[in-house]
Amino acid sequence: MIRFLTQVGLYFQFLKKVFSKPEKASVYYRQTMTEFVSLGLTSVGIISIVSFFMGAVITLQTAYNTENPIYPTYLIGLGCRDSIILEFSSTVAALILAGKVGSNIAGEIGTMRVTEQIDALEIMGINSASYLVLPKIIATLLFNPILTLISISIGIFGGWAAGTLSGVVTSENFIYGIQYAFIPYYITYSLIKTLFFAFIITSVSSFQGYYVNGGSLEVGRSSTKAVVYSSVLILMFNVILTQLLLS
Amino acid sequence: MIRVKNLDKAFYGKSVLTDISVEFEPGITTLIIGQSGSGKTVLLKSIVGLYDIDKGEIWYEDTLFNKLAFADKKKIRSEIGMLFQGSALFDSLTVEQNVRFPLDMFTEKSPEEKSDRLNFCLKRVNIINANSLFPSELSGGMKKRVAIARAISLNPKYLFCDEPNSGLDPVTAIVIDELIRELTEEYSMTTIVNTHDMNSVMEIGEKIVFISEGRKCWEGDKNEVLNSDCKPLNDFVFANSLAKKIKADAG
Ligand SMILES: Nc1ncnc2c1ncn2[C@@H]1O[C@H](COP(=O)(O)OP(=O)(O)O)[C@@H](O)[C@H]1O
Ligand SMILES: [Mg+2]
Fold it and tell me: Are A39 and A135 in contact (CB under 8 A)?
C-alpha cells in the first residue's frame, strides 16, 4: 500500500516535470509532428480493421438476440450505432491502443533510460521528461479523437455490411435505424472519454518507461506494466466518466 | 577546475561513495580507476549532478554546483560534455542529427553554421562519410567517436567519460584514449575519465585517482602507480598475469 502511494506520488511529480516550460518551442513542434506519425497514423490500420469486424459482430448479435417480430429491424442499426459510439470506439479502441501505443512508448522510453540516452539529455540541461513525453501527450490528445471518429464510421459501415450481406436487415432499414433517435451528445461523450483515455495511456506508459531501473529485462517488464495499468485505469475511468457524463 | 569535497552518496541506505575529496585541473586528463562496482560511474554522475549527493560539496570554479536549482545548473551543464559507457547516441537520429542536436537545442546558429560545426567535430574524431547512418549501423568504436563529437560540439570546458574504451579492441581503445587526451590539451578542458583498463592507465595516466569500495585510496601518476604501497591498488594493477610477470622480472 505504501509502495502504491509512493508510485502515485512519483507519478504526479513526473507529470509536473512533464508540464514544465519547454526548452525550445520549435524543437517540440517537430517532435510532436514525428509522434503524430509514430503514435497516430500507424494506428489507423489496426483501429480500422478491428472496428469493421466489431461493427459487423455487434450487428449480427443484435439481430439474433432480437429475433422477435415485434421489434422492427431498423432497431438493429440503432443498436449497432449506439454500441459503437458509446462503448466500442472510445473504450474498447482505447484498450487496443493501450496495448499497441502503451507498450511502444514504455519500450522506447525505457530503452532510452537503460542505455543512458535520458542521462545524455539531462546532462545537456534538457528537461528529459518534458522533451520526451509532452510531444507524445499532445500528439495522442490531438490524434486519438480522430481515431475514434474513424472507428465510429468504419464500425457502423462494418455493421451495415454484415447486416445486409447476411440478410438480417435491409440496407434501407439499417440506414433508417442509424439515424433514428440520434443523440449528437453521444459523440461528444465518446470524444471526451477518448481524451481521458489518451492521456492515461500516454502518461502512464511514459511513466513506466521513464523510471525503469536495470536492463532489457526490466524494459520488457515496464511495457507489460504500462499496458496492464493503463487498461485497468481506462476501465475504471470509463465507469466514472459514464456516471458523470450520462447520468 | 572542479573540486569535490567530502562527498558521500548512498542508495537506499547502502553507502556507495564515502568521503571522497579530489580536484580536477584544466588541460589534464584525470583517470578514475577501480574495480567494477567500486563506484566510478556513481562518482561521475554525482559530479555532473545526475545523482543528488547526500553530503559534501562540488565546486565548478567558484560555483557550488550541488546546491544550485535545476534551472541554474543549466548554465554549467552547457559547459559539460559527457561520454557515456554505452555511447548513449539517440537511436532515432542519424550521426549528423546526433551531433547537431546540442547545437539545435542551445544555439541560435544558422543551419550552415551548424553544419560547419558538426562536420568539423565529426572530422576531428575521424568520422567521414557517415553523416546519414544511424547508430545501429555503426561499430562500437565509431559510436564512441560520434559520441565524443556530440560531447564536444558546444566546446565544453569539462569533459566526462565513463569507460570510453569498454567493449573495444585494444587498438581502437588506444585510439579513443589518445583522442580524448589530445582534445583535452587542445581545448584546455578539465577531463575526467573512468576506466578499469590498465592499458589506458599506462597510456594517458597523467593523473590517476584510485577508488576501492567507494573510498579514494590513492592518487598519483602512471609512473607511481606501479610502485605504490597501497595494497588494494597493487591487487588491482597486478591482477593479470602479464603485469605480475613484468613486476617479477623487474624486481
Ligand atoms: N541507481 C542505483 N541504485 C542503486 N544502486 C546503485 C545504482 N547505481 C549504482 N549502484 C551501486 O553502486 C555501486 C557502484 O556502482 P558503479 O558506480 O556503477 O560501479 P563502477 O565502478 O563499475 O562504475 C554498485 O554496487 C551498484 O550496485
Ligand atoms: Mg561503471
Answer: no
Q: Does a structural domain hold residue A7?
A: no
The domain in which residue A78 lies consists of 25-246
B69 and B12 share one domain: yes
Question: Domain containing B111: what range?
Answer: 87-155
Q: Is residue A11 part of a domain?
A: no
Name the domain boundary from B155, B189, B204: B155
Which pTM was predicted?
0.90
Q: What is the CA radius of gyration of chain B?
A: 19
- Collect all residues with Cβ–Cβ distance below 8 Å to A198 and sequence separation of at least 6: A94, A97, A140, A141, A144, A145
Q: Do A124 and B50 touch (CB under 8 A)?
A: no
- Identity of the residue in A24, A123, A127 whose CB atom sits nearest the CB atom of B82: A123
Kindly give the confidence (pLDDT) of every residue in chain A, 247 residues in length, as a single tens digit, with 9 standing for 90 and above.
888 899 999 999 999 999 987 777 888 888 899 999 999 999 999 999 999 999 999 999 888 887 777 788 888 888 889 999 999 999 999 999 999 999 999 999 999 999 999 999 999 888 999 999 999 999 999 999 999 999 999 999 999 999 899 888 888 888 998 998 888 999 999 999 999 999 999 999 999 999 999 899 999 999 999 999 999 999 999 999 999 988 8
* Site residues for ligand 1, CB cut-off 6 Å: B 11, 16, 34, 36-42
The alpha carbon of B139 is separated from its chain's Cα centroid by a whole number of angstroms, namely 20
User: Is the residue at A9 inside a domain?
Assistant: no
